[in-house]
Description:
Layout: H1 16-41, H2 51-63, H3 65-70, E1 92-96, E2 118-123, E3 136-140, H4 158-166, E4 171-175, H5 187-203, E5 210-215, H6 217-232, E6 240-244, H7 251-257, H8 276-283, E7 311-317, H9 323-335, E8 340-345, H10 362-376
Parallel strand pairs: 3-4, 3-5, 5-6, 6-7, 7-8
Antiparallel strand pairs: 1-2, 2-4
Bound molecules: 2-acetamido-2-deoxy-beta-D-glucopyranose (2 copies).
Amino acid sequence: MVEILKDNPPTARQPLKGLYISARLLSLVFNIPLWTLYYALFPRPRASWTVKEAVLVRLFRYLMPLNALCKLAPQTLDKTREVPESELKETSFVWLQPVDETLLKGAAKDTKVEPVKIPGYIWPKATPIPADGSLVGLWIHGGGYMMGNGSENFPEGDVARQVFRHTKIEHILSVDYRVSSEACHPAQLQDALAAYSHLVNTIGVSPSRIFLFGACSGGHLVLLLLRYLYEEKVLPMPGSVMLFSPWVDMQIDLDIAAKKCGPRPNHDIDMLAASYYANLRFLGHHPISFLSSPYGSANRAPPGSYKSYPRTFISVGDAEAFQRECTELYTLMHNDGVDVTLDVQVDAVHDFYGSGPLMPHDTARANVTKRLVNWMRGK
Length: 379
Ligand SMILES: *[C@@H]1O[C@H](CO)[C@@H](O)[C@H](O)[C@H]1NC(C)=O
Ligand SMILES: *[C@@H]1O[C@H](CO)[C@@H](O)[C@H](O)[C@H]1NC(C)=O
């Protein structure tokens, strides 16, 4: 176990970093034609995928480890910069003030990580979120806690865009929380809490009108925030929760690396390539046991500890590596009497709802939207 607990592989430093990245990128010149030929001639991982889809999924899986192995933080920019309106078409920029110290207890308190001011974005543009009875979404983007941002220009913002366009949610706040190259845990929890408290305390939105939602590691942060609200009761729980391909289990990445268990289901066909380096960087100076706690791995919370959780919609694909942990989470919540829905789309890969036309496939996305709309109507 000991030797795997280093958060810096040799590829995180020069010159290996540059060499490794160049080699991976250069090899695409051969790999893309090879994969194309292969998937044209032989059965694809799922018969419903086109050759292009099969190649794209493979390409994502091939490039994704670069973030973890080379400590890259793509699509994450300086969070002290106010993004000008000219760079935004659908949203407006808003500053979210550092979360009030009185809301910080237990897991959100740390001697080394302090609350800071962070960027937020609101849908629709130039329309402040009102305190009236509108339905308001709080969106948390994904990216393995390593990459991405909360702006409309980050591709996965498509989740928020679809929810905004197709459901009765009238306003959405997207939080641009700190990723682990900027600060480790509990920075992400502090920032998510800052956004939630901005809605509840600053604007005065009723928590029961709030839909807290996230994708991938954003789904993990949703679950982290919920667990914190459940444990510390600093603010009421939101009325509803939506999780899209959420990362649920942080412990399993270490267990897999230490060969204590087999790989995740679909790990060899999904676009996701998980790495425990992401978990260790998120963890920072905190004890490793945090990863298997209900904060780190919501599927490892004891039965009974989901009572009083809000109504929840979980979306996952059946070709995705997170399928099992999503099902475990669903079962725990369901057994605790939570009003929880699990929607599994056939042949869909990780983050299919937030990956636009790149990923298989359009029907799955349309199905989820339809199901979401019905779910909001109470069906
Ligand atoms: C967010 O990501 C998009 C897409 O890569 C990028 O164009 C944009 O500059 C990023 N914005 C911020 C504020 O990080
Ligand atoms: C979408 O829903 C239809 C009907 O409910 C179903 O037959 C189909 O398999 C679904 N598509 C996917 C990709 O799951």
